[in-house]
Design brief:
This protein is α/β, with parallel strands linked by helices and 718 residues long. The protein has 3 domains: 2-164, Chitobiase/beta-hexosaminidase domain 2-like (Chitobiase, domain 2, 2-Layer Sandwich), CATH 3.30.379; 170-495, Glycosidases (TIM Barrel), CATH 3.20.20; 529-575 and 612-707, Alpha-glucuronidase, C-terminal domain (Alpha-d-glucuronidase, C-terminal Domain). The chain has 22 helices and 15 strands. The protein has helices spanning 2-16, 20-23, 38-47, 59-76, 137-152, 204-215, 235-248, 263-266, 278-294, 320-332, 353-361, 422-430, 442-447, 476-488, 494-506, 510-531, 562-566, 590-597, 607-610, 625-648, 656-688, 703-708, and strands at 51-53, 91-96, 117-124, 127-134, 161-164, 170-174, 220-222, 254-258, 300-303, 337-341, 372-377, 401-406, 457-461, 572-573, 613-614. The chain has an 8-stranded parallel barrel. Strands 1-2-4-3-5 form a 5-stranded mixed sheet. A two-stranded antiparallel sheet has the order 14-15. Strand 1 (51-53), helix 4 (59-76) and strand 2 form a beta-alpha-beta unit. Bound molecules: 4-O-methyl-beta-D-glucopyranuronic acid. 4-O-methyl-beta-D-glucopyranuronic acid (GCW) is lined by residues 176, 184-185, 226-227, 304, 308, 343, 382-383, 410, 718.
Length: 718
Amino acid sequence: MRRILLAILSVFWIFAVPNQACAETGYDLWLRYQPLDSGAKERVGQVVGGYFTAQTHRPTMEAAARELRTGLSAMLGYQIVQRHTVQADGGIVLGTGESPHIAPLGLPLASLGREGYLLRSVVIEGKQVTIIAGNTDVGVLYGVFAFLKRIQLGQPIDKLDIIDKPKLQLRVLNHWDNLDRHVERGYSGWSIWDWQKLPGYKDPRYTDYARANASIGINGVVLTNVNANAEVLKPEWLQKVKALAEVFRPYGIKVYLTARFSAPIEIGGMKTADPLDPGVAAWWKAKIDEIYGVIPDFGGFLVKANSEGQPGPNDYHRSHADGANMFADALKAHGGVVMWRAFVYAAENPEDRHKQAYTDFKPLDGKFRDNVLVQVKNGAIDFQPREPFHPLFGAMPRTPLMMEFQITKEYLGFATHLAYLGPMWEEVLEADTFRPAKGSTVAKVIETPVAPGAVTGMAGVANVGNDLNWSGSQFDQANWYAFGRFAWDPDASAHAIARDWAGLTWGNDPALVDPIVAMMMGSREAVVDYMTPLGLTHLMATGHHYGPGPWVADLARPEWNPVYYHKADANGIGFDRTKTGSDALSQYAPEVARLWGDPKKVPENLLLWFHHVPWDRKMQSGRTLWDELVVRYDAGVEAVAAMQARWDGLKDKVDARRWSEVRDFLAIQHEEAKWWRDASIAYFQSISKRPLPVGHAAPPHDLEHYKAINNRYAPGNG
Ligand code: GCW
């Protein structure tokens, strides 16, 4: 009888839910829960008769149960329901160690920490049962997502014995969202925070956002731009923040805000924001107490100070530590943290921009309170397609350093260029700092607490907006996904993450996953090749950074000009950062400095980052540097054409709407890759005065044509 009923139900299901395969938009991200094929349905159905938890009426446990119900029901085609006893017919048992059904099993929960989970197949009273357990409800929620992911990826679920836990404590998205919903460096529409309708209306999208984050372990969200607006700290805005916090709380996500350093002046009516002024400290303490009165689990502040015009402690001749510690002292009582950014470079400072953050922060090691994390961008300049790792990693052994990656692709072609950032992040995380010794990779540096119990973390500048597909393109979702996975495990593999994402997002067929993963894995290098090959950097157009501008030389501050970075002249090209130049290399461990300081040993992909090199220098390929540069530009363009060809081959395997969107975006990327190649070659040739190597076509226009292109309305400008 039950089977007949289920069969009827599943027919109903098919008609009730429009066939998503025809009309997917990308809204469902990697949580698509597509119907399983009949074999998988049978196998999974045997394991998941229903689910049981003794711990009801707890918001996070309910979120976990809801996700399980939604996911399994959609994949199996019939409703999965909650059982009232564990023995009903096997199935899934959710709970923490205190749950009466889990406690007696003697599971190794102690090793899971606060957020880890365990998936284990056991037999209870002759019935096969799957345990999804954690020490906290959030651990259970993460376990549910892991379990659902296994099913989506067609992995076995009948003999489970899995334990997993995050290696970093704070796994945080940084939204550069302004209060008017404009997103700085946002290429996916407006901010998803509809401030004007908050707190009255909580868009259901906030819940889907929280689900997506929780599914990859993200546990914190900074709601506001680091170029901060003090208004958000006013009481009426805190009510809006509170409403978001309430939506996120069941998903284990805390909210954070950016603190504008001059807020005591701007909204507090004070004359100064000097961090050592007792009145200023008291103002912040009162403000922080007020925030916790509204949002008891508020996470803390992210601060950009004395950088790009933002106010900060240096305005009062105080150090970054003085500034950070003032916040830290007030947050400490509530368990909050300060994420203090090391992205500083000062106007009027003639020092190589590469060196300035290290110069400022290294002497402050050991001077920060223990609830301060110094948040360091992956490289010393600014989220470029390729940068060597930031010299601060490993150089501040007494200070928690938090990695900051940029998920939104400010310098990698915005939303339309397919660039999977996994390999870029992996490259940085795997890099050996040699501090204190060989093997101290950047991943190790950020994973290892500086003292027992000290805080650790990773931040990602979000690429989420109100576009239907969240991230501006289908493939940019992969970067959000990968960020979560690396924040959970900085030693993860970009390739394995790409495989998971492709399987979840496009379907599990290897005929689909293999070519998609191949596209993804080569995509970032393609961007490097057509934008900034061989260690070149920051050659983007002014302000919006959309398209090439290597010729730009007229901006107020030297380090805003591309010519500052490439230093091309009649003799050669590249930035000398050895002893004969800016000596930025001396900020790295001697082993690293020796390797990168030797033009014969430095990897060619960083050559021009560290060396000014003659145009005729012989490269590993046997070509001259000039010829090699041209070859790289063309390789980048060809790599995009190859992605187009691969994607064309997948037409019958991908739902029509998403397929066409990707096809069109790849066509845009191909045009823009050519634009980058042509404009760059036209410009550098005007300096190198060398002919193009045989077989490489001259740019179709003269240099003036490329210089005249003006995209002043490109999105996301600061
Ligand atoms: O990359 C630069 C961006 C700015 C940004 C800044 C930062 C938020 O161009 O838009 O400001 O970095 O990271 O603070």
